[in-house]
From TrEMBL:
Family membership noted in the UniProt record: Belongs to the peptidase S26 family.
Membrane topology category: Single-pass type II membrane protein
Stretches of the chain forming a coiled coil according to its record: none
Main location: membrane
Organism: Candidatus Enterococcus ferrettii
Keywords noted in UniProt: Hydrolase, Protease
Name of the protein described by the UniProt record: Signal peptidase I
Length: 124
């Protein structure tokens, strides 16, 4: 999650609630359930995600994403022929060029998400 978070940085995890787009979450990845990852929620249930020319598209509409310029083109249709199922999320790391995330291990279920990271001093 560099540059947002650094290796060995301590973070505060909030009580669990339904994740929202761009929340940073602590999760067990599907391919390594004993590990913990920090990733950013990008796609929500019922959506299709595309990145094209440094822009994020959700269901074919542009959505502002601070890290989109770092994201390689990604076409949802090559990933799935359906939308993100209920209780599943598409996650990406902030260091998109080297991040192991949903582009590699697939969608993350709500059950795999342990909590939402409290960023800065903001309250939600």
């Amino acid at each position: 999650m560099n540059p947002t978070y650094w290796e060995q940085e301590i973070v505060q995890v909030k009580a669990h609630r339904k994740p929202e787009r761009f929340d940073v979450v602590v999760l067990h990845p599907p391919d390594a359930p004993e590990e913990l990852y920090l990733k950013r929620i990008i796609g929500l249930p019922g959506e299709r995600i595309n990145y094209q020319d440094g822009e994020l598209f959700i269901n074919h509409e542009i959505v502002s994403d601070a890290f989109a310029y770092r994201t390689e083109d990604f076409n949802w249709d090559s990933f799935s022929n359906q939308t993100i199922p209920e209780n599943y999320y598409f996650v990406l790391g902030d260091n998109r060029t080297i991040s192991k995330d949903s582009r590699i291990f697939g969608l993350v279920s709500e059950k795999q998400i342990l909590g939402i990271v409290q960023e800065g001093n903001t309250k939600k």
